[in-house]
Amino acid sequence: MNTYVMMKSQKGSTLIEAMIAIVILTIGIMAAMGMQIRAMGASSAALNRTDANNVAASLLEIFKALPFDDAILAQTVASPNALVDDATTAKYTAAALPRMVPFVASVPVAGTIVDRSGITYNLSWAVQDRVLSATNTPNKIIRVFMTWNSVIGQQRLEMTTIKYKNIQL
Q: What pTM did the predictor assign?
């Protein structure tokens, strides 16, 4: 008899419990969807950064293979602090660097490239001539800059190498 009285006083509690469970489940599913969307954006941004790294590394390898006195490697800045100033950088063109053409899909405007996945990158570089005082050996500091827009905002990549006059590839 006692059990019957307890069950009779709990009318409708199952419906309320089910609605609360549905709300909690919905919040959990929405959180999981948000994490998935964010993970997809981060994955896309990582792919773009990998593409930018590949293009920049290829460009640096081409620079290393060029003769030390090549016109493309002419000094663009006089001090290392100016290397980050976009006004003093050389802009990429397919005519100036035909060996880069296999690495990019198209070059719509000087200074920009479009990779095979359709992402547009701004590509430039800066060269600074130096002489090592201890050995009197000339060298060049070459920095490659790439910027692009991704789903997580504007991204920037900078790679640096040093080219020595007495080293031939």
A: 0.69
Q: What are 146's two structure tokens?
A: 């790439």
**How is residue 114 written in tokens?**
């479009």
SS3 state of residue 77:
coil
Residue 55: CB atoms within 10 Å = 22
Contact 123, 92 (CB under 8 A): yes
pLDDT per residue as tens, the chain (169 positions): 566 666 666 666 688 888 999 999 999 999 999 999 989 888 888 888 888 888 888 888 888 888 888 888 888 876 655 545 555 677 777 777 777 777 676 666 777 888 777 788 888 888 888 887 777 788 888 888 888 888 778 889 999 988 888 665 5
